[in-house]
Design brief:
Length: 281
């Protein structure tokens, strides 16, 4: 029998309880006419009302991880949610690769999504299968699961993967495009034909070097830069700071927001000139 492995799926389990009716008992004797109803016992002072079960209600936006480190990033394209594989994890053994589209969903209700998910057998043969997924808080559950790693994913908080960040940004110092280049993140922005070259540090901050025309040299036209990221609903915001050279005062006025629009062609064209992207001397 062919064994199939999916990018992310879930199995539904059902159970039943057999109820056996107890023997009939005689009705209680009527209370005296002047009897008063007993006062209910007081609840303990620290008692809390039971918390209702969480209902599916959350967005797919962002990065999600399974138990074998498989990581996907969901982004919205029109009325579809597309997941792209960022880290294949255990899926690599079945031919899944980074950057591959692994699922396509449309939202059909609060926290409920319906669409297709990519499956592969051990020979690498691929097919798309219909599925329904629910998102409750930070938990993703798929209805056609195969194992724990594909059945449930957890949302990444305070962690970002590069695939979420590449693209078009708008805000201070003009529009900017970020692109992954090897193990670096390069950026091109409007102000003075600016560029940045960045790397991830252990504290999940992109740090690197900005440079601008005309000289692209410190201390007037280049210096250190730091980008931190946060989620704002379905969007990602960038909190940046920069300084002239390596000893100037830090300035906190480089804030941007990721845009779903296509990057402008003139900014994209700047990446064809790697000599404009300067690293820290």
């Amino acid at each position: 029998m062919t064994q199939w492995v999916a990018v992310g799926t879930a199995l539904l389990a059902s159970s039943c309880v057999v109820r056996q009716d107890a023997p009939a008992t005689p009705p209680p004797a009527p209370a005296p006419a002047n009897a008063t109803a007993p006062r209910p016992a007081a609840a303990p002072a620290n008692a809390q009302a039971p918390r209702p079960a969480a209902a599916p209600s959350a967005s797919l936006a962002g990065a999600w991880r399974g138990c074998d480190d498989r990581t996907v990033v969901f982004t919205k394209d029109g009325d579809e949610w597309i997941c792209t594989i960022e880290i294949p994890g255990g899926l690599a053994a079945y031919g899944f690769r980074r950057g591959e589209v692994g699922c396509r969903f449309k939202q059909v209700g609060p926290g409920r999504y319906e669409g297709e998910i990519l499956w592969r057998d051990r020979a690498g043969n691929a097919s798309w299968k219909h599925t329904v997924a629910t998102v409750t808080g930070d938990t993703y559950e798929d209805t056609t699961g195969h194992d724990e790693c594909t059945r449930y994913w957890r949302r990444l908080h305070g962690e970002f993967v590069t695939a979420e960040l590449v693209g078009f940004w708008t805000g201070d110092w003009g529009d900017m495009v970020l692109r992954e280049v090897g193990d670096e993140v390069w950026g091109a922005y409007r102000h003075d034909d600016g560029t940045v070259v960045l790397r991830w540090d252990a504290d999940d901050v992109l740090r690197g070097w900005w440079s601008e025309a005309p000289s692209r040299n410190p201390d007037q036209d280049a210096g250190e830069v730091e980008f931190r990221f946060a989620r704002d609903g379905d969007a990602i915001v960038l909190d940046g700071r920069w300084r002239y050279g390596t000893s100037g005062a830090w300035r906190e006025d480089w804030d941007l927001r990721r845009s779903p629009q296509a990057p402008p062609a003139d900014l994209e064209s700047r990446f064809a000139h790697p000599e404009l992207f300067k690293r820290r001397p």
